[in-house]
Amino acid sequence: MIVINKPSGVPVHPAGRYSYNSVVEIMKAERGPGFYPYPCNRLDRLTSGIMFVGKNPKAAAKLSIQIQDRNVRKEYLARVIGKFPDGEVVCDQPILVISPKLGLNRVRANGKSARTVFKRLAYYPPGEADADPEMPADGSIPQSKLVPGAEGRSQQWRGKDGYSIVRCLPVTGRTHQLRVHLQFLGHPIQNDPIYANQKVWGLDLGVNDADATQNSDEDIISRLSRMGKEEVASAVSYHDEMVDEYYKKKAEKMSGELCDVCQTPLYTDPGEQELSLWLHSLRYEDADGAWSYVSPLPAWALPPAGLSGPTQVGGLDELVGAAKDTEVPTSETS
């Protein structure tokens, strides 16, 4: 078994326009033609952190079954909008895939059961760099920043100053579970191009919208499908800390040009801010204590210059205890 700390921006398997720059292909190139890696856990392309890669199918299958049976504890770190509440926060909201094509999920009553335990590690108040130069001094939202039908809605995310580093313990393993639950709680990951995107979700960013009364599934899917084609993705953080640099770059978008060889539509190169997500796979450990792997905190989770804060995390006992208060049946976690 090989344990790696995957950088953000690198997919696990070749997919789409990533034919060779993937974990699997990089490891094959480094270790020679006789080696084939067998990833045991999944991380999205934009997510960084601990990954297990089996040297043979038997080893990979053994660990994969252990993870599936919930005999392995996982912890992630996320950087979210605003001041996350104190104490252990448990989110039991079910999650539904509303567009398999787009990989889009949201909290819905008819979704699959899901459970996550969150706990704030640190909170950092806003500084001058957090201000959005495009926002008027009175805090009102310019018409250009409104999505259709957003007029008059609450501007809840605008009041969430600063950001929090949050520990995340997923009990179940739904696709985008942490991102969806954090969005529902009103604290989406700050640079999430999907779930913190005003152009897709509106000013409330999908908070407490389990019945889709604020935005229908059809509206969300339509807006998200335009990202990268008619317009670039736009997370809240881009309007806060990186707005000047962000709008100077083209970002990733259909260029209108075709490949000279195969006539495939070409995209522009993504901006640097589009190659990472502030979500990190921090820890994997055997539930019985046989082994444990913890990575260093990513740079975005460390205290900003001039501020003090934690540079490491403690044990999982409090989060595990909160998770056990109301367990989800094992048969519902696949």
Automatic annotation (TrEMBL):
Pfam family, any one: PseudoU_synth_2
GO molecular function, one term: RNA binding
UniProt-listed PROSITE patterns: PSI_RLU
Annotated Gene3D superfamilies: Pseudouridine synthase
Top-level taxon: Eukaryota
Transmembrane segments: none
Domain Pseudouridine synthase RsuA/RluA-like: residue ranges: 2-183
Database matches in InterPro entries: PsdUridine_synth_cat_dom_sf, PsdUridine_synth_RluA-like_CS, PsdUridine_synth_RsuA/RluA, RluA_PseudoU_synthase
Any single GO BP term: enzyme-directed rRNA pseudouridine synthesis
Protein name per the record: Pseudouridine synthase RsuA/RluA-like domain-containing protein
Species of the source: Coniochaeta pulveracea
